[in-house]
Amino acid sequence: MRFVVLVRANQQTESGRLPSREEFAEMGKFNEGLAKDGVLLALDGLQPSSKGARLRFDAGRTTVTDGPFAETKELIAGFWIVQGKSKAEVVERFTHAPFDGGMEIEIRQIYEADDLGENFPAEMREQAERLRAAYRG
Description:
32% of the residues lie in helices and 28% in strands. The chain is α+β, with helices and mostly antiparallel strands. It has a single domain (2-136), classed as Alpha-Beta Plaits. Strands 2-5-1-6 form a four-stranded antiparallel sheet, covered by helices on one side. The chain is globular. The two termini are 20 Å apart.
């Protein structure tokens, strides 16, 4: 099973404050452990919402709004994509993430083709597998 682990933004991440050398080192050690254990599929931090945009689709129209966005509790500062045998396993692993100061993470399972039922056509399943293989390189 694959999971995305979302790091919630806060005032510090939205201000563009980068981690200290020590914080980078702690996170690097944690990430190395994920990679060593063979569960890490992807990870990255995101720049502040002031450098982003939101697109809203409604009745055939698209509205683009440039950041920053006011509600930091709705924003994401970074992510991991990991694999695990269960949500409980991933939760346990991430209880050891080097965060403090009220940082929040959210763990969500990623849909697999088998989760999508019979309404997911075979050609779409094949396309998803082909695209995933292409970006894994």
